[in-house]
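Working notes for the structural subgroup meeting. M.R. asked for a predicted model of this chain before we commit to crystallization trials. I am recording the input and output together here so anyone reviewing the notebook later can reproduce the run.

Input as submitted:
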Amino acid sequence: MEECPICCNEYEPKSSLWVELTCSHKLCTSCHSKIQTTRTTMSGETHTFSKCPFCQALTGIEIGTCPDGRMTVREHRSRCAGFEGVGTIQINYSVQGQYSLNRTAFLPNNAEGQRVLNLLRTAWDRRLCFAIGTSVTTGARNVPVWNVHHKTAMFGGVSCHGYPDPRYFERVTNELKSFGVE
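Returned structure, recorded in token form:
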């Protein structure tokens, strides 16, 4: 007999009462059903996913909790500090209703900025850019908060959430990868 590491019930090792996650951890089907989540993307696709309760490995396509909203993008000639010679991509996020938000972020308009923009579009569709939680800045609860770090200023450096920040692309790419966005 094998013991489920969550509920401690015992089951035959080869029975159909086990689910093996992509990380190789095993749970009984009852506990597995409790960690599965089904949500719909902004574009209307439904996905079921789970995160391993032991190592946080993702099985399936994660969909977050950001309410319905709009992501709009425009390009302009102004530059982000440290990226002379290229313009800027401005991203505007808006959500209306109970969880109202209007946020603006910036990327340099170069190949790396365009690549990150495409990843952020996927993250937005999957409701991952924002989550409903407690604001670290204001302490307000049950509000939309950044779930993926963005640059909200074109200059001012790291401490002002702006550019230049030589490691930003690496950090945001790794952060998106942890949500399964590659």
